[in-house]
Amino acid sequence: MAYLESLTNKLKIKRLRTINILYWFLLTYIVAALIFWYIALNKQNDELTFYRLEMIDEKDPAAVQNMSKIAEAKNRKTFQYIGEGTTFFLLIVTGAVFVFRAINRQLRQSQQQRDFMMAITHELKTPIAITKLNLETLQKRTLNVEQQQKLIGMTIQEANRLNALCNNILLTSQIEAGDYKIVKEVIDFSELAGECAQNFIARFTGRKIKTDISEMAFIEGDRLLLQLALNNLLDNAIKYSNKEEIILLKVITKNKLVTAQIIDEGPGISKIEKEKIFEKYYRGDNNQTKGTGLGLYLTKTIIREHNGSIHVINNTPHGSIFEINFAAL
Ligand code: ADP
Questions:
Q1: pLDDT tens digits for range 98-143
Q2: 210 forms bridges with which residues in the sheet?
Q3: 234 against 286, higher pLDDT
Q4: What is the C-alpha to C-alpha distance for residues 25 and 215, in angstroms, rounded to an integer?
Q5: Contacts of 329 (CB under 8 A, 6+ apart)
Q6: DSSP 61
Q7: Spatial CB neighbours of 198, under 8 Å, sequence gap ≥ 6
């Protein structure tokens, strides 16, 4: 796997280098051609002016006037060339910047897709391998009830992880393709959030998950999608913070808005990353945790489908607060 990864990376770097060399060669050629064009036209202008001046009869009373007319015409031509040259130059630079960004975006996307495929393979294989091992242990060994329960609990955790992963992948593609029919109903968001939190408290018994949910926060939405969005945010809070750090789910209704906050005491998110984390496939730099980079992208898509908003702010002294807002009914 590591060998394949390094081979892919080498190929990518080679392709990137070739595209880069070609790009700069073409750009230099075009700019050099433009400069050459300016010099050649200017030279032609000088020669033409010289011949015109040569043809003037110095005894002619209008000679001085004719000379200044020729000089004026020369200056006009020079300004014309500078004007046209600058316009072309600016057009070329704008085009070059545009192409450069497009190539970079394309390369970044294909790299992200490759990373995603690697991550997904890993994410699918790990729970399957653990589940298989646990079931084989249960089958082959005689374990006491406590040991059995522990293994079953671990297996259920892995099944939950697989389920969440499949939901994220399937719903992302269904929503993007317009195949998912959003069924909106009146939802008590407080109740829904409470259920999600209880689910996490039951699953992650060693974690400090707290709630502060005010009652009766009604919104209109799709229950399954909203559950998925909250689960993704809670899942991240667990993934990106330590065991002893508190995770808080808050829901309040104020000024006709239902606001939910998922607060953690993890490392927080830098200013630059805050702009990127909602992009498809984006994973934090040097991110060693499990993941695919789909969670926040899907969460944002779901919130947008509900005409809501999501943003992230810093928690103090450290950590992140993911805040979502919906119109209250
Ligand atoms: P994944 O968790 O699968 O990598 P997400 O789309 O859920 O993908 O998150 C994108 C990135 O945002 C993560 O890789 C991580 O770097 C960052 N991130 C998300 N939630 C948190 C959080 N609560 N604390 C710190 N970083 C986070």
A1: 988 888 888 887 887 888 888 888 888 988 999 999 999 999 989 9
A2: 248
A3: 234
A4: 65
A5: 186, 218, 219, 220
A6: T
A7: none
Mutate to test the pocket of ligand 1, among 240, 271, 286, 323 (most ligand atoms within 8 A of CB): 240
Pairing of strands 185-188, 218-221: antiparallel
The pairing of beta strand 257-263 with beta strand 320-327? antiparallel
At 253 the pLDDT is: 95
Please tell me the distance between residue 317's alpha carbon and the centre of ligand 1 in angstroms. 19
CA distances from 211 to 149, 206, 250, 278 (A): 28, 16, 6, 25
Residue with CA nearest ligand 1 atom 17: 284
Q: How far is the CA of 108 from the centre of ligand 1 (A)?
A: 18
Name the burial class of residue 186, with classes exposed (0-12), middle (13-18) and buried (19+) by CB atoms within 10 angstroms of its CB: exposed
**Residues lining ligand 1, Cβ inside 6 A:** 236-237, 240, 264, 266-267, 269, 277, 282-284, 287, 291-297, 320
Q: Which residue is associated with the tokens 């789910």?
A: 249
Read off the pTM: 0.73
Q: Give the whole-angstrom CA distance, residue 294 versus residue 165.
A: 9
Distances (CA, A) of 252 to 50, 131, 209: 83, 39, 18
CA-CA-CA-CA dihedral for 76, 78, 83, 88, to nearest 10: 140
- Among 196, 225, 190, 227, residue whose Cα is nearest residue 209: 196
Distance 277 CA to ligand 1 centre (A): 7
| Interatomic CA distance for residues 35 and 41, integer angstroms | 10
Q: What is the DSSP string of 96-147?
A: HHHHHHHHHHHHHHHHHHHHHHHHHHHHHHHHHHHHHHHHHHHHHS---HHH
